[in-house]
Amino acid sequence: MRRRIIVLGSTGSIGKNCLDVVRANKNLFKVVGLSAQSNDGELAAQIAEFKPEKVALSNEPSWRRLRSAAPRRVGVLAGDSGPVELVETLKADVVVAAITGGAGLASVFAAVKKGIRVAIANKEPLVMAGGMIMSAAKKHGSTIAPIDSEHSAIWQCLHKERPDRVARLILTASGGPFLGMTKRQLAGVTPAQALRHPRWKMGRKITVDSSTMMNKGLEVIEARWLFDVPAKKIEVVVHPQSIVHSMVEFVDSSVMAQLGLPDMRVPIAYALSAPDRWPSRLRRLSVAEMGRLDFMPPDLKRFPCLSLAYEAVEKGGAAPIRLNAANEVAVEAFLGGRIGYADIPRVIAKTLGRNGPLKIGGLEGIMEADAAARETARGCL
Ligand SMILES: NC(=O)c1ccc[n+]([C@@H]2O[C@H](COP(=O)([O-])OP(=O)(O)OC[C@H]3O[C@@H](n4cnc5c(N)ncnc54)[C@H](OP(=O)(O)O)[C@@H]3O)[C@@H](O)[C@H]2O)c1
After folding, report:
1. Ligand 1 near 95 CB (within 6 A)
2. Residue 298: CB within 6 Å of ligand 1?
3. Quick check: 66 and 92 in contact, CB under 8 A?
4. 57: Cβ below 6 Å to ligand 1?
5. Which residues fall within 8 angstroms of residue 156, CB to CB, at 6 or more apart?
6. Radius of gyration in angstroms for the set of CA atoms belonging to the chain, rounded to a whole number
7. Of the candidates 262, 346, 358, 327, which has an alpha carbon nearest to the alpha carbon of residue 124?
8. pLDDT class of 355 with cuts at 50, 70, 90
9. For residue 141, how many other CB atoms are within 10 A of its CB?
10. How many CB atoms lie within 10 A of CB 78?
11. With contact defined as beta carbons under 8 Å apart, do 302 and 342 qualify?
12. pLDDT tens digits, 29-51
């Protein structure tokens, strides 16, 4: 029987790569649900190819256009609650969470509560509510399968290992496009420059996050929850070639690494197949041609966002929610030309430093803390 799959954020970089994996394994999957924010043209093409039962589109004018263009048999859901409705109303075996930002939180939580596999690229919900998501997954029997290449690597290295035998997780970072820049040069970075990543082709927000190293900070918090390892045991190392996707050091001092060419279809396929593996026609890594691999410590002075993420996870409670919310507000403002590149860490640090309740309870409490932090961050722009 084919597995019934919902792809949330299907018109984005991860969503399209995921549909490519599905296309290559047509006999294994039936796409039942798709969602996007406003790209009705791409979603219409996906409907024609994959014939889902329902789709969701949150932007109202785009939703109107799609509703009149889509075949009658396809349900077209509207509004911000569309992704949650898709998850709650469709029978599915796996949900791919590939929406950008905190907007994906409610749908991730809804999928976890259904006890199905969640292949998760959308790291922000884990940053905001990792403890709650992981304990709900345990309670409802849901598997959270990471798509982020670093977390996929760690997941693979940890397979069948005893948790108490893990000494350290080592997350690799490409270092982004500004690895060699001075602080002064960084201050003049434009949105166009920040959107040119040397190794990965990704959505706009994560591309900027990679350049500031906030992406790595969010990944430290993501790893903390996915693998139940305290942040002080999670180290970041810059590895510009992006061949070693991450490593695990064990108590006997042995280090395991997972390697491969940078292609998101590999970790996406593994998140869907694990613990099995499917044959693929993707390009192979030639170790002999690889030449050298470089590793170096990150420069926290030039890239303060990484330190801010460690600070937030150390504080706990609402601090990671504030970090994430402030980052989303600041990146959007930077891309809109309203603040400079060096203002991104400034806005985050200010929002993080503001007093406010650290304790949070339940999904509603998290949403409230998120909304309050966004308000504070807007005030700091
Ligand atoms: N790209 C990568 O290689 C990569 C790697 C690891 C992890 N991730 C993570 O995966 C997630 C997606 O990244 P991406 O690069 O694929 O982003 P992206 O290309 O910008 O795609 C985002 C997708 O989510 C939809 N979307 C955006 N905001 C939404 C909202 N408020 N409500 C509902 N849908 C919304 C978009 O719809 P429209 O197209 O209509 O705007 C699109 O389908 C992020 O959390 C990122 O950190 C990405």
Report:
1. no
2. no
3. no
4. no
5. 258, 270
6. 20
7. 327
8. low
9. 11
10. 17
11. no
12. 999 999 999 999 999 999 999 99
Query: What is the atom index within ligand 1 of the atom nearest the CA of 103?
Result: 31
Output the CA 70–ligand 1 centroid distance in Å: 23
Atom of ligand 1 nearest to the CA of 80: 32
What domains appear along the chain, each with residue ranges and CATH number? 3-146 (3.40.50.720), 151-315 (no CATH)
Residue 100 Cα, ligand 1 centroid: separation in angstroms?
A: 4
> If you measure from the C-alpha of residue 167 to the centroid of ligand 1, how many angstroms do you get, rounded to a whole number?
33
Q: What is the pLDDT of residue 357?
A: 63
Q: What is the mean pLDDT of residues 45-70?
A: 97
Q: Ligand 1, residues 19, 100, 204, 268: which to mutate, most atoms within 8 A of Cβ?
A: 100
How far, in Å, CA of 71 to CA of 120, rounded? 29
Please name the residue whose Cα sits nearest to atom 43 of ligand 1: 9
Average pLDDT, rounded, for the chain:
96
Summarize pLDDT for 365-374 with one digit per residue, the tens: 999 999 999 9
Specify the amino acid at residue 98: A
Of the residues 8, 14, 59, 215, which should be mutated to test ligand 1's pocket, given the most ligand atoms within 8 Å of the CB? 14
- What pLDDT score does 290 carry? 86
Q: Are 323 and 126 in contact, with CB atoms under 8 Å apart? A: no
Work out the burial of residue 335: count CB atoms within 10 Å of its CB; fewer than 13 is exposed, 13-18 middle, 19 or more buried. Answer: middle
Question: In the structure, what pLDDT confidence band is assigned to residue 307 with cuts at 50, 70 and 90?
Answer: very high
pLDDT one-digit tens code per residue, 130-152: 999 999 999 999 999 999 999 99
Beta bridge partners of 117: 94
Tell me how far the alpha carbon of residue 101 lies from the centroid of ligand 1, in angstroms: 7
Neighbours of 235 (CB within 10 A): 16
Query: 349 is written with which tokens?
Result: 């640090």
Q: Please tell me if the CB atom of residue 34 comes closer than 6 angstroms to any atom of ligand 1.
A: no
